[in-house]
Design goal:
The chain is α/β, with parallel strands linked by helices and about 475 residues long. The protein has 15 helices and 22 strands. β1 (about 10-15), α1 (about 15-30) and β2 form a beta-alpha-beta unit. α1 (about 15-30) runs parallel beside α10, α3 (about 50-65) packs antiparallel against α4 and α3 crosses α8. The relative contact order is 0.12. It binds flavin-adenine dinucleotide.
Length: about 475
C-alpha cells in the first residue's frame, strides 16, 4: 500500500533566499509550510554568489580608492593580503555550513526536508532523500518553485576534461591561480576579473561582444574596461574560444585557442557565460510544462498555463529579474497572494498592491561591484529605444563634483538619467564611478515614486557629497 502523503498547506521547493522568504511569509500568515532543499539552505547567494563574491572584491575596491587618496596611498601600496581576503570570504560564506540558516528556519516555524523535490502532478510533490527513500507531500494550497539557476556553459568540445570554473569555483576557490582566463563580459565576468586581478592573478578576459556589461549604458563598461586594463588585465573583445584543452594532471594548465588564431595558457578557465533555470528534473511534465524551460508567471507569480492557481514560480527561476533583492520582493508578493487565496480574501491590487509586482520590470536596481562601481535602475537609452519610448537623456561627469574630488582626487565617473518629457518623471538612472552604490536607492525612489523633476529640484543634496550629482543633472536638464 502506498504511503499516505502528508498534507501541509504550502510546499516550497528550493531554500535559497527566495524560497526562505516565501516560506517565512506563508508561515507568518498561519499556513503550515514545508521547504525542500537538496543542497545548502541559503542557496546560491549565500555560498557561491553575492556574499563570497562581494567579500573577494571588498579589499580590491577599498584599495583602488585608498591608493588615490593623498596621505593614505603609501599605506596601501603593495599586494593585498590574499590569505586574509580568502579567510574573510570563507566567513562571509559561513564556511559553507548552513547550520545558522537551518536554525533560522526552525525559529520561524518552517519545516525543512532535505532532498531533491519534484512534482508528481497537481499539488503533489515527491522528495528523494539522501538515503534513497521517497517522501510524498500533497499541498493543500500551494506549491512554490524557487529552484534558481545554474551556470550555462557554451558547447566547447571536451568540456568535462577541461574542468572549467563556473561562478561556484570562482567564488569558493581555496587559492588564487597565477593565470586566470575569464570568458564572458557580463556582471560575473567583470566582477571576478576585477577581484582576481587585484588578488594577484594575471587575468585575460575573452569577450564575444565589443564591450563589457552590454546590457548597461555603454559608458559603464568603458570605464570598467579602462580600470581593468590599468590594473594589468588583458581584455580581448570580439573574440571567442574556439578550442581549449587541459592535460590530465590536476596542476596542468589549460591551453586556449581563440578565434583570432592566438593561443594562451591559463591555470584556470572561468566560463561566465550565462545562467540556465534549474527546471530539468522538477517533474514539470506532470503538470503540462516543459522540463528545462524558464517558468513563466503572472504578476502575482502564479505559473501561467497551469489551471487552478496553486503553482507559483518565484526568484531567478522565472527569469524576471535575476537578483536576490528582486527575488525577495517577489517572495513578499507571492507569500501574501498565497495567504489571501487560502483565506479566500480578495487580492489587493490597490494602493499597496500587495499581490502584484509593479517594480519587477520598470525599476530594477543593480550594482556591479567593479572599479569603478556601476549602479543602475530603470531604463537605459537602448532599452528606451527598443521600447519606442521617447526620453530626454541627461549626462554629467561625476568627477566635476567637489564631493567626488574629496572622495578620490583622480575621480572618473559619469551619470545619466532618462526623463519622460511629458510626465517629467525619471525613467532610468545609471551612475558609474567610485562609491556610487549607495546613491542608487535615491534613483529607485525617484522612479518608483514617479517624482517629477520639478519636485526633485527641491530635494537638496548635501555638500560636498557625490549625491550632488542630482543637482547637477537637474541643472543641466533645466538648461
Ligand atoms: C557570482 C554571482 C554573484 C551574484 N551577486 C549578486 C549580488 O551581488 N546581488 C544580487 O542581488 N544578486 C546577485 N547574484 C544573483 C543571486 O545569486 C540570485 O539572484 C539569487 O541567488 C536567486 O535566489 P533564488 O532563491 O531564486 O535561487 P538560488 O539562490 O539559486 O536558490 C535555489 C535553491 O534551490 C535549491 N534547489 C534547486 N532545485 C531543487 C530541487 N529540485 N529540490 C530541492 N532543492 C532544489 C538549490 O539547491 C538552491 O539552494 C549573483 C549571482 C552570481 C552567480
Amino acid at each position: 500500500m502506498a504511503d499516505t502523503p502528508r498534507t501541509p498547506d504550502v510546499v516550497v521547493i528550493g531554500a535559497g533566499p527566495v524560497g526562505e522568504n516565501v516560506a517565512d511569509r506563508t508561515t507568518a500568515a498561519g499556513l503550515t509550510t514545508v521547504i525542500v532543499e537538496s543542497d545548502l539552505v541559503g542557496g546560491e547567494c549565500s555560498y557561491w554568489a553575492c556574499e563570497p563574491s562581494k567579500a573577494l572584491l571588498r579589499a580590491a575596491l577599498m584599495r583602488a580608492d585608498a591608493s588615490h587618496v593623498p596621505g593614505l596611498a603609501p599605506a596601501v601600496a603593495g599586494p593585498l593580503d590574499t590569505a586574509a581576503v580568502l579567510a574573510h570570504r570563507d566567513r562571509m560564506a559561513a564556511d559553507w555550513n548552513d547550520e545558522g540558516q537551518v536554525a533560522w528556519l526552525k525559529s520561524a516555524g518552517i519545516e525543512l526536508i532535505r532532498g531533491h523535490g519534484y512534482l508528481e502532478g497537481p499539488r503533489r510533490v515527491a522528495v528523494r532523500t539522501a538515503d534513497g527513500g521517497v517522501l510524498r507531500l500533497r499541498a493543500r494550497h500551494a506549491v512554490v518553485l524557487c529552484t534558481g539557476t545554474g551556470a550555462a556553459f557554451p558547447p566547447l568540445p571536451g568540456l568535462d576534461a577541461l574542468r572549467p570554473w563556473s561562478s561556484r569555483e570562482a567564488t569558493s576557490a581555496p587559492r588564487i591561480p597565477e593565470r586566470l582566463a575569464v570568458v564572458g563580459a557580463g556582471v560575473v565576468a567583470t566582477e571576478m576579473a576585477t577581484a582576481y586581478q587585484a588578488l594577484g592573478s594575471q587575468v585575460t578576459l575573452i569577450a564575444r561582444d565589443s564591450r563589457l556589461l552590454g546590457r548597461m549604458e555603454p559608458f559603464a563598461g568603458e570605464l570598467v574596461a579602462e580600470r581593468l586594463r590599468e590594473a594589468g588585465a588583458d581584455l580581448r573583445f570580439r573574440t571567442t574560444v574556439t578550442a581549449a584543452a587541459r592535460a590530465q594532471g590536476p596542476q596542468d594548465p589549460v591551453q586556449v585557442t581563440l578565434s583570432d588564431g592566438s593561443r594562451l595558457t591559463a591555470d584556470e578557465l572561468l566560463l561566465a557565460t550565462g545562467r540556465a533555470p534549474r527546471t530539468g528534473d522538477l517533474g514539470l511534465r506532470t503538470v503540462g510544462l516543459t522540463p528545462g524551460d524558464w517558468l513563466t508567471t503572472d504578476d502575482s507569480f502564479t505559473v501561467t498555463g497551469v489551471p487552478g492557481a496553486w503553482l507559483y514560480a518565484v526568484g531567478d527561476v522565472n527569469n524576471r529579474a535575476l537578483f536576490t533583492h528582486q527575488g525577495k520582493y517577489q517572495a513578499r508578493i507571492a507569500g501574501a497572494t498565497i495567504a489571501a487565496r487560502a483565506a479566500g480574501t480578495p487580492l489587493d491590487t490597490g494602493r499597496w498592491g500587495r499581490h502584484t509586482a509593479t517594480a519587477d520590470t520598470e525599476a530594477v536596481p543593480q550594482v556591479v561591484f567593479t572599479d569603478p562601481e556601476i549602479a543602475a535602475v530603470g531604463l537605459t537609452t537602448a532599452a528606451a529605444e527598443r521600447a519606442g519610448r521617447q526620453v530626454d537623456v541627461v549626462d554629467y561627469e561625476i568627477g566635476q563634483l567637489a564631493g567626488a574630488l574629496q572622495y578620490r582626487p583622480d575621480y572618473r565617473g559619469r551619470a545619466r538619467i532618462l526623463i519622460d518629457p511629458e510626465r517629467r518623471t525619471v525613467l532610468g538612472a545609471t551612475f558609474a564611478g567610485p562609491g556610487v552604490a549607495e546613491l542608487l536607492h535615491s534613483a529607485t525612489v525617484a522612479i518608483t515614486g514617479e517624482i517629477t523633476v520639478d519636485r526633485l529640484w527641491h530635494a537638496v543634496p548635501a555638500f560636498p557629497t557625490i549625491s550632488e550629482i542630482w543637482l547637477r543633472l537637474l541643472e543641466t536638464y533645466r538648461g
